[in-house]
Amino acid sequence: MTILLRICAWLLAAAVTFFTLGPPTLRPHAMLGQDADHSLAFLLVGLAFAFAYPKHRRLAMAMSVVLIGALELLQLMFPGRHARLEDFVVDALAAIAGFALAALLDWARERRWEPS
Asked: How many CB atoms lie within 10 A of CB 27?
């Protein structure tokens, strides 16, 4: 199960990377607006990596924030793309929220299944 979660997390990260650095015409839009699209994508990335690496969540979260920053800076090298501090903040906070949601779900599951 862990291997399947890790594969899914990395495929999701690869898709987000492609859509972040690729041509804007190939980018899917959820009709929610740019910030909401970013938030949803990076929330899912954070959630996926949190469940894929439960014993290393803090490290995975820190690495996610660093890599989101690198991804934002890499946009400077691609025509039609732009790096913005606002995008980095939205993306990083959404990924952190994904990690926090995973921790909350784990906590709730443990409380529910603990013998009274």
From this structure: 12
* Domain membership of residue 38 as a residue range: 2-113
Burial of 85 from C-beta contacts in 10 A (0-12 / 13-18 / 19+): exposed
Tokens for 29?
Answer: 């839009």
What are the tens digits of pLDDT across the range 38-92?
889 999 999 999 999 999 999 999 999 999 999 999 999 988 788 889 999 999 9
Q: Kindly state the DSSP code that residue 114 receives in the 8-state scheme.
A: S
Number of domains in the chain: 1
**pLDDT tens, 3-40?**
999 999 999 999 999 988 887 777 766 666 667 888 89
E strand or H helix that includes residue 35: helix 34-52
